[in-house]
């Protein structure tokens, strides 16, 4: 049933000393909250962000032992360049908050467990779409009021590929690293479909054709990991039916050096009198092999995966604008913003009117 007044939230951004560090949980008491109030734990860990990034697994395991079963955890590995390891705790904050005519609301949920044969395929796309649909309705939002859909989805390990083939079905790919991209793509297209950013035919056609560059979501942020077999999903939106000092707005970077688009988002926050709390962004190496006509080497570097280069580049740009290195930048932006760019969501706090 759709609530008449969606539950508002607060966002606490806290540094971590290592992937297993739980000291940020102590900040909840200082903020007048408990672990039972935690809707989602969203963090950056200092692993390689690839298939064997066990920093994500450690962080997820540690936090999931503390928070309620319905709380989702989303850990993105890779803090290359100036990016700092940290967690974002999204906690229920019902107020009251007089003087605010709208506010940030959130809902979290999970898809069913996905079989290895479903990863990166239409069944994953559909599962994400269905869950996003349900969460948006739960919040009483229209698709246009959604500012971000954050997803952590599974990937294929060697064991999962073997299990898939044991059933007589070929996996979407036998390359475990590529499976991350295929899984992110399926999740992003499910989000785009749920938010009305593309048609059903376009979403499924894009899933099968790598060249479907024109089909993407401006509000999808998907990352993949071996630490789960379902998709953890968080929906954020700014609701006119809520009252809270927190709000959000979204946009896209057209490429990895798109300073102008970022400045426009930050200028909008400043024009409203707000203060930036956190920035969530996707980044990828431009698949064309160039950035504004100049050749880049991110896709041909045999020492570092391209996602690591992209996080470092965009992380530096965003950190300079935000005035903090504890920003959330996730690599691999398949169908999450235009090719070579990525989706961006800015969460900000308003003073009392």
Q: Your description of this structure?
A:
The protein is α+β, with helices and mostly antiparallel strands. It has a domain at 246-349: Cyanuric acid hydrolase/Barbituras, RU C (60s Ribosomal Protein L30, Chain: A, 2-Layer Sandwich). It contains 8 helices and 14 strands. It has helices at residues 26-30, 54-64, 122-139, 158-166, 176-194, 200-208, 259-271, 306-322, and strands at 9-15, 38-45, 72-77, 86-92, 103-110, 146-154, 220-225, 232-239, 246-253, 275-283, 290-291, 294-295, 328-331, 342-349. The protein has a 4-stranded mixed sheet, with helices on one face. The relative contact order is 0.18.
Per-chain topology:
Layout: E1 9-15, H1 26-30, E2 38-45, H2 54-64, E3 72-77, E4 86-92, E5 103-110, H3 122-139, E6 146-154, H4 158-166, H5 176-194, H6 200-208, E7 220-225, E8 232-239, E9 246-253, H7 259-271, E10 275-283, E11 290-291, E12 294-295, H8 306-322, E13 328-331, E14 342-349
Parallel strand pairs: 2-3, 6-7, 10-13
Antiparallel strand pairs: 1-4, 2-4, 5-8, 6-8, 9-14, 10-14, 11-12
CATH architecture of the domain at 246-349: 2-Layer Sandwich
CATH superfamily placement of the domain at 246-349: Cyanuric acid hydrolase/Barbituras, RU C
- H and E order: EHEHEEEHEHHHEEEHEEEHEE
User: What's the shape?
Assistant: globular
Overall strand count: 14
| Radius of gyration from the alpha-carbon trace, in angstroms | 19 Å
Q: What structural class should be given to the helix and strand makeup?
A: alpha+beta
User: Which ranges are low-confidence, i.e. pLDDT below 50, for 5 or more consecutive residues?
Assistant: none
Strand content: 25-35%
Q: Tell me about the biggest sheet?
A: 4 strands, mixed
DSSP helical segment count: 8
What is the CATH class of the domain at 246-349?
A: Alpha Beta
Q: Ends: how far apart?
A: 32 Å
Spatial order of the strands forming the largest sheet: 1-4-2-3
Mean pLDDT: 95
What share of residues is helical? 25-40%
CATH topology of the domain at 246-349: 60s Ribosomal Protein L30, Chain: A
């Amino acid at each position: 049933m759709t609530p008449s007044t969606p539950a508002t939230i607060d966002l606490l951004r806290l540094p971590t000393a290592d992937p297993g560090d739980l000291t940020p949980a102590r900040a909840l008491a200082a903020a007048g909250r408990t672990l039972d109030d935690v809707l989602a734990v969203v963090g950056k860990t200092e692993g390689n962000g690839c298939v064997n990034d066990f920093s994500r697994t450690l962080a997820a395991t540690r936090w999931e032992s503390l928070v309620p079963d319905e709380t989702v955890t989303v850990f993105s590995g890779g803090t290359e360049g100036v990016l700092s390891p940290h967690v974002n705790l999204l906690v229920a904050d019902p107020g009251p908050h007089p003087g605010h005519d709208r506010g940030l609301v959130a809902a979290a949920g999970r898809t069913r467990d996905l079989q290895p044969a479903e990863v990166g395929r239409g069944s994953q796309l559909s599962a994400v779409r269905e869950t996003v649909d349900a969460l948006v309705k739960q919040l009483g939002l229209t698709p246009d009021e959604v500012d971000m859909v954050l997803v952590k989805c599974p990937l294929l390990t060697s064991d999962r590929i073997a299990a898939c083939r044991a059933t007589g079905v070929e996996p979407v790919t036998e390359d475990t690293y590529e499976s991350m991209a295929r899984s992110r793509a399926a999740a992003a297209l499910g989000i785009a479909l749920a938010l009305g950013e593309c048609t059903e035919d376009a979403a499924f056609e894009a899933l099968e054709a790598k060249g479907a560059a024109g089909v993407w979501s401006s509000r999808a942020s998907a990352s993949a990991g071996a630490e789960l077999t379902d998709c953890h999903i968080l929906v954020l939106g700014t609701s006119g039916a809520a009252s809270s000092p927190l709000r959000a707005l979204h946009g896209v970077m057209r490429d990895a050096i798109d300073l102008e688009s970022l400045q426009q988002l930050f200028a909008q926050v400043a024009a409203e009198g707000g203060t930036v709390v956190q920035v969530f962004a996707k980044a990828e190496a431009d698949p064309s092999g160039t950035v504004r006509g100049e050749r880049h080497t991110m896709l041909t570097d045999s020492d570092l995966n391209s996602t690591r280069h992209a996080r470092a580049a965009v992380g530096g740009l965003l950190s300079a604008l935000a005035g903090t290195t504890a920003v959330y930048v996730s690599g691999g932006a398949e169908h999450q913003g235009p090719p070579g760019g990525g989706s961006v969501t800015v969460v900000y706090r308003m003073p009392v009117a």
